[in-house]
Amino acid sequence: MRRKKAQGMVRRGDPDYILFFTVLTLVALGIIMVFSASMVKSLRFYGNPYHYLLRQSMWAALGLSGMFFLMNYDCWRYRNLIPYVYALSLVLLVLVLIPGVGQMRDGARRWLGFGSLGFQPAEVAKFTTILFLADMLARTKDKIRQFFKGLGPYLLALGITFGLILSEPDLGTAVTLAGAAVVVLYISGANFFHLAFLGLASLPVLYQVIISEDYRRKRFLAFLDPWKDPTGSGWQIIQALYALGTGGPFGTGVGYSRQKWSYLPQPDTDFIFPVIGEELGFFGTALVLLLFFTFAWRGYRTAMAAPDRYSCLLAAGFTTIISLQAVVNIGVATGSLPITGITLPFVSYGGSSLLMSLLSAGILLNISRYANR
How far is C-alpha 276 from the chain's CA centre? Predict the structure, then answer.
């Protein structure tokens, strides 16, 4: 009875098939490009060209199973569990920072697990934070217009999550989550001038975060002029631009990238977009942009047509965080934004990112079954 009341006695229909097939196309493209981009690294470290392909396919199968389940399991049914799930994600963020518990890779402590079987709590926290915000904001309603009593508690919760993710360190994920949270707060009715003031006040903090670490400062300076240090801090941007420029209109063909042969760092994760540009050309990158534009269009359309405040905020939050992450990744790969380690949703190699993105898509598709009804 509670679920029917929350849905306003709305009849469930078919999911948004345009959104559904957009996600499936991105996942299929990602598996193909992960195989191509990771082949050299797989041979080098594992003596098996299929190592990353098999792992990505396993995570894709798990994520698609979760997406199908959530697409058919109404988002109102687990609403009472959201605060506990969010609290658990904060516990995981604390655990990953403990030496001996969190795994160190590439100078960052972002993984929990055993050996190569690990997951990133930050990806879980992105997912649960959107759930938490949508649930709580739907309950408070007009109180969000007040700065201290309304907006204050959410800023405190977001500040704790942001700080824990930043401590790993993972600036890209933290900034992406903060951006999506601001959008959800604004849609829920938060005062625009309050949010604008917070945005301006955060700029000096962000500046201090960038210059406080030598590698962040070098990355930011490389973004401004990568050719000043072409064999050092500017190497990643230059190699990414070489890859994109080499592809031309139609690309060199799948599997024939030259930059993945130890020229382009992280060709299967953070810099998979340049590999797509090199192998599939301008039309391949245009297809990726079109797919993410379609995802954003159908996601926000679902939010606008959602049957209640809670599902509207959920749809808007998940659409924003995935779309914003895609913008940041592509912006970094094209030299339009400073380098930060963040994957391309649905496409890049990475089990945690792929799984959480597909679970988010499952909730979006579930809400689309009630849109305009």
Answer: 19
Cβ pair 358, 65 in contact under 8 A: no
CA–CA distance, 286 with 289 (Å, rounded to integer): 5
Tokens at 14, concatenated: 């078919």
Of the candidates 330, 265, 269, the one whose C-alpha atom is nearest the C-alpha of residue 296 is 330
The Cα 351–Cα 364 span in angstroms is 20
Contact 234, 225 (CB under 8 A): yes
pLDDT at res. 228: 82
CA 365 – CA 68 distance, rounded (Å):
9
Per-residue model confidence as pLDDT tens digits over 11-68: 788 899 999 999 999 999 999 999 999 998 888 888 888 999 999 999 999 999 999 9
- Pairing outcome for strands 117-119 and 108-114: antiparallel
What one-character-per-residue DSSP string does 213-271 give?
SHHHHHHHHHHH-GGGSTTTTTHHHHHHHHHHHHHTTT-S-TT--STTTTTSSSTTTTT
How many residues are there in the chain?
A: 373
Per-residue pLDDT of 164-213, as tens digits, reads 998 888 888 988 999 999 999 999 888 888 888 888 888 888 888 777 77
Question: Over 80: is that where the pLDDT of 117 sits?
Answer: no
Domain edges within the chain: 12-368
C-alpha–C-alpha distance, residues 339 and 270, integer Å = 9
- Torsion of the alpha carbons at 356, 134, 366 and 305, rounded to the nearest 10: -130
Q: Which residues of 14-53 are buried (b: 16+ CB within 10 A; e: fewer)?
A: ebbeebbebbebbbebbbbbbbbbbbbbbeeeeeeeebbb
